[in-house]
């Protein structure tokens, strides 16, 4: 038992008081974990676009004041009632979506969309009592996607915590708790390219480059990167992307450009842009007879996907995936092992590191579109 178990912990957290305003490092009180909850000491966290979207709160409703953050790594400090699967000292990755282990989704081998712990961006409280575990002078500070990792300590449902190899360096594997696993799993678990096949990746941000990394691991021989920003191409070479297409350089639809390059279409495509036109292109650029396209990007709320039904009749398959189809608790430890065995390269995604006190710098860089992942050292 740690000396802090059962006590309120006072620690530093970066609080988002208002949309779009710099986060403020505050002293917060973190209550002990309740039933089926664990309290984590966060050691490293990184910034993902989803944090920025909910901080800006332009297109999404967001709750304030709030502690953002969901890509992270840490150590279990204490556990609440009924927690038997984790103990203080365990090395873990908190995840924005969970695995209760009991619902129909968790029991299905095909789904990772747990009905109890699936991502909920509107909820700012814990499930057990509908209250927050964070407060400042008695005033509640709300949670974000059940993780709130921009805090030295946080309280998380046990189903949203993956226990990992204690030898894994937490300053590296923290990036596996969201975007990188999403892109990697989209390719390895859903698109499933075979050795020697061709794969198109739409969008060369961190998620798309992780999808390319998956294609490289699967032994694809051609990996075609598609992005409107040619500035992304140089970096993408490190991720095994062999050819590049900027749709702006052509006066015909990019799906036709890709069909011409590949004698009728690619074997697989993975869309990681969130743009609905790119989604349609990603589907229409796969080869008839066997091609499979996988959508990963989160579209605008009013977007509508339009394609001619003949594209399906001609034996093209369209799929979508959430979190790369990984079940957080069951599957994430094996993604960490892929890194430990030096199959998966994680370092190349990490382009920057800042101390916790400079967390706002990470936001500024992401808004400027600089770098892939910025590690925040707590
Ligand atoms: P990012 O903004 O870093 O990268 C997106 C890239 O797409 C950019 O380089 C941009 O230039 C490019 N792009 C935009 N429109 C394009 C178009 N029409 N054609 C070609 N390229 C285009 O984003 P990211 O962090 O890599 O995330 C990618 C997407 O994945 C986002 O939509 C994000 O919300 C989504 N995502 C989904 C899940 C999931 O579980 N399904 C999880 C995490 C992230
Ligand atoms: Zn994320
Ligand atoms: Zn479940």
3D structure, described in words:
With 378 residues, this protein is of the alpha/beta class. 23% of the residues lie in helices and 23% in strands. The protein is built from eleven helices and 17 strands. Strands 3, 4, 5, 8, 9, 16 and 17 form a seven-stranded mixed β-sheet that branches. A six-stranded parallel β-sheet has the order 12-11-10-13-14-15, sandwiched between helices. 48% of the residues are buried. Residues 49, 179, 182, 202-208, 226-229, 232, 247, 272-275, 277-278, 296-298, 321-323 line the site of nicotinamide-adenine-dinucleotide (NAD). It is found in: Cytoplasm. Its EC number is 1.1.1.1. Keywords: Cytoplasm, Metal-binding, NAD, Oxidoreductase, Zinc. Its main location: cytoplasm.
């Amino acid at each position: 038992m740690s000396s802090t178990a059962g006590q309120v912990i006072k620690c530093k957290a970066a609080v988002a008081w208002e949309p779009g305003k710099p986060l403020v490092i505050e002293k917060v009180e973190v209550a002990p974990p309740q039933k089926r909850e664990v309290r984590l000491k966060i050691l490293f966290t990184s910034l993902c676009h989803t944090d920025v979207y909910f901080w800006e709160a332009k297109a999404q409703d967001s709750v304030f004041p709030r502690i953002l953050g969901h890509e992270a790594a840490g150590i279990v400090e204490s556990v609440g009632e009924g927690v038997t699967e984790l103990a203080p000292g365990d090395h873990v990755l908190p995840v924005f979506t969970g695995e209760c282990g009991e619902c129909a989704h968790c029991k299905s081998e095909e789904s990772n969309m747990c009905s109890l712990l699936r991502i909920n961006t509107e909820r700012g409280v814990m499930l057990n009592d509908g209250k927050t575990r964070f407060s400042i002078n008695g005033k509640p500070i709300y949670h974000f996607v059940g993780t709130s990792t921009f805090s030295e300590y946080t309280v998380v449902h046990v189903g949203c915590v993956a226990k990992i190899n204690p030898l894994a360096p937490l300053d590296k594997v923290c990036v596996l708790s969201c975007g990188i696993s999403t892109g990697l799993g989209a390719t390895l678990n859903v698109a499933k390219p075979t050795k020697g096949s061709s794969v198109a990746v739409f969008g060369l941000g961190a998620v798309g480059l992780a999808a390319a990394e998956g294609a490289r691991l699967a032994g694809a021989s051609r990996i075609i990167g598609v992005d409107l920003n040619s500035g992304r191409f140089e970096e993408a070479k490190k991720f095994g992307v062999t050819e590049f297409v900027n749709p702006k350089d052509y006066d015909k639809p990019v799906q036709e450009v890709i069909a011409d390059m590949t004698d009728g279409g690619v074997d697989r495509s993975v869309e990681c842009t969130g743009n609905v036109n790119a989604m349609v292109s990603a589907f229409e650029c796969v080869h008839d007879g066997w091609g499979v396209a996988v959508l990963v990007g989160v579209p605008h709320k009013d977007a509508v996907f339009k394609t001619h039904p003949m594209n399906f009749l001609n034996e093209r398959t369209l799929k979508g995936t959430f979190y790369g189809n990984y079940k957080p608790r069951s599957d994430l430890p094996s993604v960490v092992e892929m890194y430990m065995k030096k199959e998966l390269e994680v370092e190349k995604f990490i382009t920057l590191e800042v101390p916790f006190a400079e967390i706002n710098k990470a936001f500024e860089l992401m808004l400027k579109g600089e770098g892939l992942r910025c590690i925040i050292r707590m």
